[in-house]
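Anyone? Bumping this.
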Amino acid sequence: MRIGIDLGGTNTVVCLCKEDGSLLDKTRLPTRTGQPAQMQADMKQMALSLCQKQGVNPNEVTQIGIGVPGSFDKQTATLTFGTNLGMNNVCFAHAFQPEFRCPVRMDNDANCAALGETIAGAGRSCRHTVMVTLGTGVGGGIVIDGKLYTGCNDVAGEIGHMVIVAGGRPCNCGRRGCLESYASATGLIHLAEDALEGRTDSLLCTMRDQNGGKLTAKMVCDARDQGDPVASQVFEQYCMYLGCGLVSFVNILQPDRIILGGGVAGYGEKLLAPLREIIARESFKGVHKNTELVQALLGNDAGLIGAAML
Amino acid sequence: MRIGIDLGGTNTVVCLCKEDGSLLDKTRLPTRTGQPAQMQADMKQMALSLCQKQGVNPNEVTQIGIGVPGSFDKQTATLTFGTNLGMNNVCFAHAFQPEFRCPVRMDNDANCAALGETIAGAGRSCRHTVMVTLGTGVGGGIVIDGKLYTGCNDVAGEIGHMVIVAGGRPCNCGRRGCLESYASATGLIHLAEDALEGRTDSLLCTMRDQNGGKLTAKMVCDARDQGDPVASQVFEQYCMYLGCGLVSFVNILQPDRIILGGGVAGYGEKLLAPLREIIARESFKGVHKNTELVQALLGNDAGLIGAAML
């Protein structure tokens, strides 16, 4: 048995998993941000409750894994820098003792999602996968030979911070022109804002104005579905940028599958189909096999299961 | 004992290696392009001569590896498409029988160089390395956990074909704005040609004119060494593009080392120092360790040793 924890800025979710990654049960509580001792106590209590409910002796738990939003030191299971959690340098290695005596592992939430999808979701039975999460930013994770690949220093897989437009749009990471600046939900909104500059004749304008002047990624998809030419053009541009990044991942890593997750991936086949065309047209191809592009299957459970399986 | 072969469009080099990758002896012959049977006979003869010279019984050879310039099918050790060799669909699996009975492996020359440098050169004792070869194109190879990483279909590691300028300069691969289009020796020449457009007042112009109007990458380095401001500006631009690609490799893969090889890397520390600054400034960093940038050590032997160690 394993415990997986998705430590978020809003909620903390704790799950109990079998050794093969199948989810038995989960529970959630609001995260007590800025209160590390209370937050750790909550986590332990949730883990104990799950065990009790499922008739599992805490001694049977072989590993506790935590997915965190921020910087961490894997070797000591320490959250070194957790802006959204309002706490730095919190060590979790002993937080579950004395009831649980197993090792505590830690990785970032995007990596956990990549591992979870590979073990139990859209990348099942694959050796090599790349997960690309299209949310506020572009998160990601790389699984090689069925294991999370984290490089020489545990921070590999920052695939959103591959530059696709040298000198382009400023990115939060300090570089310019990162994939994240164009292919995140935020990037899609920026593309739409640029396209609407000085226009009033588009359905997308009307939607924005009805929402108090605020554009969302979903509006672009909805307006495109209703035939709005501006939204269609913005969407095409978005696919060009995202496709550009995906083709580079194929050329570099040739994973069995690239798994698209996050809010924008909810647009489903309408997003995947044009991206597959770009990949087929532009990427290096093998003799026997090529990278497939698929949609994530597990939603928020991916990070939870992945944490359990670290 | 192992045999490594670097099958080039001009010469074929065959070596004898120990199991740890140390080179014992090597020999070379011009490649008989367009004549697959003769070429295979030459290879076998060179391998047999090396064994005889070193007192090695061909039965002691545990593996023969061939680095090829072109497309191949690893599973059948077949060169599927070898433009520079004037031959397609040539199978090497049985080319060394009956004298040698060991398996014959194959990979592309850039991958072999990456493996060779990692086992016996600038990446020695590293777990994860990325080799970037700056020649006519930008070749590359990825070593993960000490083994060549070739993805789901044996064509991973095409790191020269990561786009850094979406919609930019056309690349031979069919995409636009690939790293290769900017960071290869050819890319450096293009940057210099653009900078010299309409100018006659630069040392670089004089050098070009004295060479029958033909610029080379070395001229840019030489003119910069002599204080030519145009060459300095071109070189700075080149470092910006190459650095952009290297930082992305760090963010994605966080290898222990990035190894720069190929002609342009011969400029040594004068190239590496500014690139290290860009990497330090722009890349994601770990708590304990970060990616080092180093120059390749083995020259052409890298591909030969890597082939032996496939």
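Late reply, but here is one note on the structure posted above: The first strand of chain A starts at residue 2 and ends at 7.
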